[in-house]
Amino acid sequence: xxxxxxxxxxxxxxxxxxxxxxxxxxxxxxxxxxxxxxxxxxxxxxxxxxxxxxxxxxxxxxxxxxxxxxxxxxxxxxxxxxxxxxxxxxxxxxxxxxxxxxxxxxxxxxxxxxxxxxxxxxxxxxxxxxxxxxxxxxxxxxxxxxxxxxxxxxxxxxxxxxxxxxxxxxxxxxxxxxxxxxxxxxxxxxxxxxxxxxxxxxxxxxxxxxxxxxxxxxxxxxxxxxxxxxxxxxxxxxxxxxxxxxxxxxxxxxxxxxxxxxxxxxxxxxxxxxxxxxxxxxxxxxxxxxxxxxxxxxxxxxxxxx
Length: 306
Fold this sequence. Notes:
Blueprint: H1 2-10, E1 21-27, H2 34-43, E2 48-54, H3 59-72, E3 77-81, E4 85-87, H4 91-101, E5 106-108, E6 111-113, H5 122-147, E7 160-164, H6 165-171, H7 185-195, E8 200-202, E9 208-210, H8 219-239, H9 246-266, H10 274-293
Parallel strand pairs: 1-2, 5-8, 6-9
Antiparallel strand pairs: 3-7, 4-9, 5-7
């Protein structure tokens, strides 16, 4: 999947006056990507490529290594895409156009799903359909917020993202390494950036596409992902001194129980698509309770894809 991402980078439309420096950080105990990196260097002769090894395991550590490297190089802008994605040829152009429109500090854009793998079973394809429906509904909500002039309320993830490095130099903002293998570090960065006065937006025109391995096309995966994310939110609030009262917790869980029941009852009418949302609701209920009890969330301890 990383090679597919790098190949899509090699096809980017690069505006005049823009010089690209690619930073690939491997989060591993030993380097294993040298051959893929050398092949990529040959694909982008007009750009430079830097390959770094981050041995401290954790997605926040890897992202911070990229950010620190870009800052040390004196770069102007930093973009992020995940190693299980590919980007459209005009992805960079569209991110720059949105950012430059009003000198935004951070801009993000949609990440859509590629079609399911050819070896996906009918059950896997049903899960993919549910995932895709939720994702496209989320994209549509973001477009509505953008159209209403409320882009600052759109949560910005780093799957498709551009940041003005001067903002990070000035504020010292970094990804939260305390999240370890949990994930959620990108949304937390967005939350912290807003508190520091970041000017943020979202564009529907810079499209990235996420490759979805069969291992993620299960209800259990979506249950686990939602569980871990919810426990992160509670754990983060506790670490910041915020208190979630019993009544507020009960109301949150009650709302999720209602959604869970609705999604299960609607499953026969939707071809099973709402079961994905049901699994996510159940996971969030368990995650809220786990977070309240202080359980950590090692979401990225096990990874999948190839």
